[in-house]
Amino acid sequence: MNKHTGGCLCGSVRFELNKEPDFAYGCHCRFCQKATGTAFRSGLRCQKSSVKFNDGEVKTYIYTSPEHGRSLNVKFCPTCATTVTVTIDRFPDIQVIMLGTLDDPSKIEIKTHMFTDERMHWLAFNDGDAIYPKHRINLDGTPATQSNIINKG
Prior knowledge:
By secondary structure, the protein is mostly beta strands. It is 5% helix and 35% strand.
């Protein structure tokens, strides 16, 4: 396993992964666009039990989705405002780590993209990427169908 460590911009909040992430993904939904101020959020899906945080203070912003009523808990450093992690009511054992907070994000490759029906029109994907119009897991827990997006360019 590659050792993954990271933290916020000012260094107050630090973490270490003691197990490889389940996978890395880009989420192109409007929540992630607005929450990050960018085109999409890039995250690592990890088991909560595999992430160890230091004692640095974090604040939590709780966002309740108008679509399904569940909460997304955005945890950020109160000093530098770096979003470090997100937990999601729908997946209580999952910890999402923001890819950009890793000390060496170059070790991670994103091959899964979700909510691509809300993506910026100028974004293209690599051949072989798993691309989903919405979440990769349907509300009933079954796997979602991948999209047939054809890159232009």
